[in-house]
């Protein structure tokens, strides 16, 4: 059976579950494990270093014109002749959507099974792993994989209960300019880590959020994880936030509780990376209880400490 993944999260979960031998094609932004796989999906933003504002404008213009940011290598897809294609219909910016995928698949001489993975909440992402494995006749592999991850989240919850930790008032930003709140599964990650984000949109799309509303909400912990940005890329645009009126009045700023985190723990819904996100958030929200291991420690930084480190160089 040959699989083509149009979704980085699906690719990641296949590797995590040991199902990578079925993969014969991926997207340009699939995880490093798939670096040697043929790239079937490309993007007009690929290799460019646009700012948050520029990316937002490019997407808005493309959407207004009815165009997609993504394109498919039709000849490569035809040569692979996949039996199964995984895709999504959550975000037109993050990944190619099901409509574009269907258009490409319709041209194939051999029609594959098209499996859309469009989770809205954290439990949905868990079930996506089962959907992937079931499509390959390996459903039992998913249950073993998920049980291991569930054990990690249960341990975090047990620690929070044991320490009677109060919920932290949190905001997680999915974009810097314009500012987007977090949606879909991320509010559930925040809850699992001992926080609450009252500006979020659980199980729904993230939306533009006025800065004045954020200042009024006054988060105790601010997590900045723009979709597609790693820590270094996010740091390049932090001036867009720090220059805003009221930045220094935020509790998160005054108490050095502003964090920059890698996007793949939040806006790429592989359940393994989302559980890493829960572990990282728990360390940010409750550092007196949770200590990041070597892997998780690489995935986020304290903004104040990073600035001080750069100034001392």
Judging from the principal axes of the Cα atoms, what is the shape? globular
Mean pLDDT: 90
Strand order of the largest sheet: 4-3-2-1-5-6
The SSE string, one letter per element, is EHEEHEHEHEHHEEHEEHEHHHEHHEH
How does the helix and strand content classify structurally? Answer: alpha/beta
Tell me the fraction of residues in β-strands, as a range.
Answer: 15-25%
Estimated radius of gyration: 20 Å
Largest sheet: 6 strands, mixed
Number of discrete helical segments: 14
Query: What percent of residues adopt helix (DSSP H or I)?
Result: 40-55%
Sequence stretches where pLDDT stays below 50 over 5 or more residues:
none
- Number of separate strands: 13
What distance lies between the first and last C-alpha atoms, to the nearest angstrom? 53 Å
Search tags:
alpha/beta; 313 residues; ABC transporter substrate-binding protein; six-stranded mixed β-sheet; globular; ABC_transptr_periplasmic_BD; single chain; five-stranded mixed β-sheet; Vitamin_B12-ABC_binding
